[in-house]
Specification:
single chain, alpha+beta, Glutaredoxin, 4 strands, binds glutathione
């Protein structure tokens, strides 16, 4: 199953994880999260209650916190 990175292009925390994924050549699907949109934020908070980005998803497994993701 492929990795999904929930992120936003303007978030430097997301860049931190992207750098590691690109450096390792790890395949992933990028999904943009728009935390400024109430509906999108609520949908994302259902996945991860703190609604912080980025979030790495590996099937049913959710990995928060950039240092852990790397
Ligand atoms: N300690 C977290 C920090 C993540 C974080 O603060 N992300 C910011 C974006 S750069 C965020 O989600 N801000 C939205 C909010 O706090 O509502 C990590 O390393 O993943």
């Amino acid at each position: 199953m492929s990795l999904v990175l929930h992120s936003h292009p303007l978030s430097s925390y997301c860049w931190k994880v992207l750098i590691a994924l690109y450096e390792n050549g790890t395949p992933f699907e990028a999904r943009m999260v728009n935390l400024g949109d109430a509906q999108a934020r609520a949908a994302y908070a259902a996945l991860w209650p703190t609604a912080k980005i980025p979030l790495l998803q590996d099937g049913d497994k959710i990995v928060p916190e950039t240092s852990i993701q790397i």
